[in-house]
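INFO batch 0412 | record 1 of 1 | parsing
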Amino acid sequence: MIMDGRNAGAGERDEAASLKAGTGLLTRRSFLAGSAAGLGALGLAGCMSSDGMSHAEAAKLYGPVPDEKFPIPAIDVSKVDPKYFRRTVRYDTKEAPGTIIVDPGNYYVYRVEEDGNATRYGANVGRDGFRWSGDAYVGRKSEWATWTPPAAMIKRQPEAAKWARGMPGGLDNPLGARTLHLYQNGAYTLYTIYASLDAESIGNGITSGCVGLLTQDMMHLYDRTPVKTKVIVLPA
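INFO prediction complete | emitting C-alpha coordinates
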Protein backbone atom coordinates (compact mmCIF):
# COMPACT_ATOMS: atom_id res chain seq x y z
CA MET A 1 0.00 0.00 0.00
CA ILE A 2 1.59 3.26 -1.12
CA MET A 3 1.06 6.14 1.24
CA ASP A 4 2.83 9.17 2.56
CA GLY A 5 3.87 9.61 6.18
CA ARG A 6 1.36 12.29 7.10
CA ASN A 7 -2.24 11.22 6.79
CA ALA A 8 -2.12 8.51 4.19
CA GLY A 9 -4.47 5.63 4.72
CA ALA A 10 -7.71 4.38 3.30
CA GLY A 11 -7.65 6.83 0.40
CA GLU A 12 -4.59 5.26 -1.24
CA ARG A 13 -6.31 1.92 -1.43
CA ASP A 14 -7.10 1.90 -5.09
CA GLU A 15 -5.51 2.94 -8.34
CA ALA A 16 -8.66 3.86 -10.23
CA ALA A 17 -10.00 7.03 -8.60
CA SER A 18 -12.24 9.40 -10.50
CA LEU A 19 -13.84 12.77 -9.90
CA LYS A 20 -17.30 12.79 -8.45
CA ALA A 21 -19.57 13.77 -11.30
CA GLY A 22 -20.57 17.39 -11.23
CA THR A 23 -18.93 18.32 -7.94
CA GLY A 24 -15.18 18.05 -8.41
CA LEU A 25 -14.90 16.06 -5.19
CA LEU A 26 -13.13 12.73 -5.08
CA THR A 27 -15.55 10.13 -3.78
CA ARG A 28 -14.81 7.39 -1.28
CA ARG A 29 -16.18 4.72 -3.65
CA SER A 30 -14.06 5.87 -6.60
CA PHE A 31 -10.89 5.61 -4.55
CA LEU A 32 -11.87 2.25 -3.12
CA ALA A 33 -13.15 0.41 -6.13
CA GLY A 34 -12.54 2.49 -9.21
CA SER A 35 -16.23 3.15 -9.57
CA ALA A 36 -18.13 6.40 -9.93
CA ALA A 37 -20.90 5.03 -7.74
CA GLY A 38 -21.99 7.33 -4.94
CA LEU A 39 -23.19 6.58 -1.46
CA GLY A 40 -26.54 5.26 -2.62
CA ALA A 41 -30.08 6.29 -1.83
CA LEU A 42 -31.36 5.81 1.68
CA GLY A 43 -33.90 3.03 2.12
CA LEU A 44 -35.53 0.68 4.56
CA ALA A 45 -36.88 -2.83 4.36
CA GLY A 46 -38.99 -4.58 6.93
CA CYS A 47 -38.10 -8.22 6.41
CA MET A 48 -36.23 -10.34 8.96
CA SER A 49 -32.62 -11.18 8.17
CA SER A 50 -31.15 -14.65 8.48
CA ASP A 51 -29.25 -13.48 11.57
CA GLY A 52 -32.43 -12.57 13.39
CA MET A 53 -32.21 -8.78 12.99
CA SER A 54 -34.94 -7.09 10.98
CA HIS A 55 -33.95 -4.49 8.45
CA ALA A 56 -35.92 -1.99 10.51
CA GLU A 57 -33.71 -2.80 13.51
CA ALA A 58 -30.61 -2.60 11.34
CA ALA A 59 -31.77 0.73 9.94
CA LYS A 60 -31.96 2.04 13.51
CA LEU A 61 -28.49 0.68 14.34
CA TYR A 62 -27.06 2.27 11.21
CA GLY A 63 -29.19 5.40 11.30
CA PRO A 64 -28.03 9.00 10.83
CA VAL A 65 -25.66 10.68 13.27
CA PRO A 66 -26.69 14.34 12.97
CA ASP A 67 -24.59 15.75 15.82
CA GLU A 68 -21.21 15.01 14.26
CA LYS A 69 -18.94 17.76 12.91
CA PHE A 70 -20.12 16.58 9.50
CA PRO A 71 -23.60 15.05 9.95
CA ILE A 72 -23.45 11.39 8.99
CA PRO A 73 -26.25 9.97 6.83
CA ALA A 74 -27.94 6.66 7.44
CA ILE A 75 -26.52 3.56 5.80
CA ASP A 76 -28.77 1.95 3.20
CA VAL A 77 -29.00 -1.39 5.00
CA SER A 78 -30.76 -3.00 2.05
CA LYS A 79 -27.36 -2.96 0.33
CA VAL A 80 -25.60 -4.84 3.17
CA ASP A 81 -25.75 -8.62 3.49
CA PRO A 82 -27.41 -9.14 6.91
CA LYS A 83 -24.60 -11.44 8.01
CA TYR A 84 -22.39 -8.35 8.19
CA PHE A 85 -24.57 -6.44 10.62
CA ARG A 86 -22.90 -5.78 13.96
CA ARG A 87 -23.62 -8.44 16.57
CA THR A 88 -22.22 -10.19 19.63
CA VAL A 89 -21.00 -13.74 18.90
CA ARG A 90 -19.19 -16.54 20.66
CA TYR A 91 -15.50 -16.36 19.82
CA ASP A 92 -12.85 -18.78 21.03
CA THR A 93 -9.52 -17.03 21.53
CA LYS A 94 -6.78 -16.70 24.11
CA GLU A 95 -6.36 -13.02 23.31
CA ALA A 96 -7.21 -10.48 26.00
CA PRO A 97 -10.47 -8.54 25.97
CA GLY A 98 -10.15 -5.44 23.82
CA THR A 99 -7.91 -7.10 21.23
CA ILE A 100 -8.98 -6.49 17.63
CA ILE A 101 -8.82 -9.47 15.27
CA VAL A 102 -9.24 -8.95 11.53
CA ASP A 103 -10.45 -11.98 9.54
CA PRO A 104 -10.07 -10.87 5.91
CA GLY A 105 -11.01 -14.27 4.52
CA ASN A 106 -14.50 -13.88 5.95
CA TYR A 107 -14.74 -10.07 5.87
CA TYR A 108 -15.09 -9.63 9.62
CA VAL A 109 -13.43 -7.60 12.35
CA TYR A 110 -13.78 -8.85 15.93
CA ARG A 111 -13.31 -7.00 19.20
CA VAL A 112 -12.67 -9.57 21.91
CA GLU A 113 -15.03 -9.20 24.89
CA GLU A 114 -15.30 -10.96 28.23
CA ASP A 115 -16.65 -14.49 28.78
CA GLY A 116 -15.74 -15.94 25.38
CA ASN A 117 -17.66 -13.39 23.35
CA ALA A 118 -16.71 -10.86 20.72
CA THR A 119 -18.34 -7.94 18.94
CA ARG A 120 -18.30 -8.78 15.25
CA TYR A 121 -18.37 -6.17 12.49
CA GLY A 122 -18.67 -6.68 8.73
CA ALA A 123 -15.75 -5.24 6.79
CA ASN A 124 -14.18 -4.58 3.45
CA VAL A 125 -10.57 -5.72 3.08
CA GLY A 126 -7.61 -5.78 0.72
CA ARG A 127 -8.17 -7.03 -2.79
CA ASP A 128 -6.21 -9.97 -4.18
CA GLY A 129 -2.50 -9.24 -4.17
CA PHE A 130 -2.79 -6.54 -1.51
CA ARG A 131 -3.75 -8.53 1.58
CA TRP A 132 -1.36 -8.84 4.49
CA SER A 133 -1.31 -10.56 7.85
CA GLY A 134 0.51 -10.18 11.13
CA ASP A 135 0.43 -8.46 14.51
CA ALA A 136 0.20 -4.71 14.95
CA TYR A 137 -1.19 -2.19 17.39
CA VAL A 138 -3.13 1.06 17.29
CA GLY A 139 -0.43 3.72 17.23
CA ARG A 140 -2.76 6.68 16.92
CA LYS A 141 -6.39 7.59 16.35
CA SER A 142 -7.93 10.26 14.12
CA GLU A 143 -11.33 11.91 13.85
CA TRP A 144 -12.15 13.45 10.47
CA ALA A 145 -8.48 13.25 9.50
CA THR A 146 -6.87 15.13 6.62
CA TRP A 147 -6.00 12.80 3.77
CA THR A 148 -2.91 13.43 1.61
CA PRO A 149 -2.32 11.36 -1.54
CA PRO A 150 1.30 10.27 -2.04
CA ALA A 151 3.30 11.29 -5.08
CA ALA A 152 3.02 7.80 -6.60
CA MET A 153 -0.77 7.97 -6.49
CA ILE A 154 -0.80 11.44 -8.02
CA LYS A 155 1.36 10.14 -10.84
CA ARG A 156 -1.13 7.34 -11.52
CA GLN A 157 -4.18 9.52 -10.97
CA PRO A 158 -3.51 13.16 -11.90
CA GLU A 159 -6.97 14.18 -10.68
CA ALA A 160 -5.70 13.60 -7.13
CA ALA A 161 -3.12 16.39 -7.53
CA LYS A 162 -5.59 18.98 -6.24
CA TRP A 163 -5.25 17.33 -2.81
CA ALA A 164 -1.44 17.22 -2.80
CA ARG A 165 -1.47 19.49 0.25
CA GLY A 166 -4.23 17.52 1.92
CA MET A 167 -7.97 16.90 1.64
CA PRO A 168 -9.75 18.25 4.71
CA GLY A 169 -11.90 15.92 6.74
CA GLY A 170 -15.47 15.44 5.58
CA LEU A 171 -17.94 12.98 4.15
CA ASP A 172 -16.02 12.72 0.86
CA ASN A 173 -12.67 12.19 2.55
CA PRO A 174 -11.55 8.57 2.01
CA LEU A 175 -10.44 8.22 5.65
CA GLY A 176 -13.96 8.85 6.87
CA ALA A 177 -15.14 9.95 10.29
CA ARG A 178 -12.77 7.78 12.34
CA THR A 179 -9.43 6.09 11.66
CA LEU A 180 -7.25 3.68 13.63
CA HIS A 181 -3.65 3.84 12.37
CA LEU A 182 -1.76 0.56 12.70
CA TYR A 183 1.86 0.43 13.87
CA GLN A 184 4.55 -2.23 14.30
CA ASN A 185 7.69 -1.73 16.41
CA GLY A 186 7.11 2.00 16.64
CA ALA A 187 6.69 2.50 12.89
CA TYR A 188 3.51 3.26 10.97
CA THR A 189 2.60 0.28 8.79
CA LEU A 190 0.68 2.49 6.33
CA TYR A 191 -2.44 0.42 7.04
CA THR A 192 -5.58 1.62 8.76
CA ILE A 193 -8.99 0.57 9.96
CA TYR A 194 -11.24 3.31 8.67
CA ALA A 195 -14.88 4.40 8.41
CA SER A 196 -16.86 3.85 5.23
CA LEU A 197 -20.28 5.10 4.14
CA ASP A 198 -20.25 2.69 1.20
CA ALA A 199 -22.69 -0.08 2.09
CA GLU A 200 -21.85 -2.09 -1.00
CA SER A 201 -18.16 -2.30 -0.12
CA ILE A 202 -18.79 -4.48 2.95
CA GLY A 203 -17.98 -8.12 2.28
CA ASN A 204 -15.66 -7.29 -0.60
CA GLY A 205 -11.92 -7.06 -1.25
CA ILE A 206 -11.42 -3.58 -2.68
CA THR A 207 -8.51 -1.93 -0.87
CA SER A 208 -4.73 -2.05 -0.93
CA GLY A 209 -4.66 -3.62 2.50
CA CYS A 210 -6.67 -1.26 4.69
CA VAL A 211 -9.83 -2.47 6.44
CA GLY A 212 -13.10 -0.55 6.33
CA LEU A 213 -16.13 -0.75 8.60
CA LEU A 214 -19.45 0.98 8.14
CA THR A 215 -19.14 4.40 9.73
CA GLN A 216 -21.52 3.64 12.60
CA ASP A 217 -19.62 0.43 13.34
CA MET A 218 -16.28 2.20 13.15
CA MET A 219 -17.44 4.83 15.62
CA HIS A 220 -18.58 2.06 17.96
CA LEU A 221 -15.19 0.33 17.73
CA TYR A 222 -13.20 3.58 17.87
CA ASP A 223 -14.80 4.70 21.12
CA ARG A 224 -13.83 1.41 22.78
CA THR A 225 -10.29 1.20 21.43
CA PRO A 226 -7.43 3.02 23.19
CA VAL A 227 -4.04 3.67 21.65
CA LYS A 228 -1.73 0.64 22.07
CA THR A 229 -4.58 -1.83 21.52
CA LYS A 230 -3.29 -5.06 19.96
CA VAL A 231 -4.47 -5.81 16.43
CA ILE A 232 -4.10 -9.23 14.79
CA VAL A 233 -4.66 -9.58 11.04
CA LEU A 234 -5.23 -13.23 10.16
CA PRO A 235 -4.15 -14.77 6.85
CA ALA A 236 -6.87 -14.58 4.22
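INFO post-check: The two ends are 17 Å apart (CA to CA).
INFO record closed
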